[in-house]
Amino acid sequence: MTDRLKGKTALILGAGCVSDGWGNGNATAVAFAREGANIVSVDIDEDAAARTADLVRKEGGSAIHVKADVADFEEVDQAVQLAVETYGRVDILHNNAGANAKGGPVETSEEDWDRVMQVNAKGAFLGCKAVIPVMKRQGGGSIIHISSIASVSWTGHPFIAYHASKAALNHMTHVIAVQHAADNIRCNCISPGLIDSPRIYGTILSFYDGDVERMRRERSQSVPLKRMGDVWDIANAAVFFASDESKYVTGVVMPVDGGITCAIPH
């Protein structure tokens, strides 16, 4: 540990992983803990939330886990209150919970549209709604949203609900950053590019006829750096935004994408 987050408490919504591997949520939890943060691991899948908390404790960190649906304010607020009861404060809110549904406006069902919006946009909104009063009372904090390059560009496949929900996160970041700057609450957003995480094998692989090597090869070749990123690239960016190293940074939507948004025709 280098103690960049020593004494801070991080509430991570969507802290679990869809598999036993490393995803953005559990990697960020461990990265925060390695820098000294206490972790509140929140996920709709209680087993996944518990696995993340266990990973933190195995590295010598302090963690609790909570089962909560990010689209349910009462459950999110209870998670926030448990964090305060356990650790006394919430310094970092990391909005990582995400959902996706394949299809454009014709193919996407209303149910899928609503589900993706509830998790990706409403979930982040409710996290902020519950945490900001706590941060105001304690004198500040850092809010981090996980968006996507899909929020600003076509990415090769139709996921209209996902694209729209992530675009909403970008502007939510701007509004919260400005409104709560006087409260010493910073709000920033990470925009991942093509990341080799467990989630893509459930959402993207079908576009490549189930050919894993083809998917990896073609995704890597489309990136200027000629490789996909990994979940630690996202976790490391989150550590920066959570730490005092970014104390004068707010309202930023930062791509972590190997340069791909620079290369996409607009």
UniProtKB/TrEMBL annotation:
GO terms of molecular function: oxidoreductase activity, acting on the CH-OH group of donors, NAD or NADP as acceptor
Family per similarity comment: Belongs to the short-chain dehydrogenases/reductases (SDR) family.
Protein name: Oxidoreductase
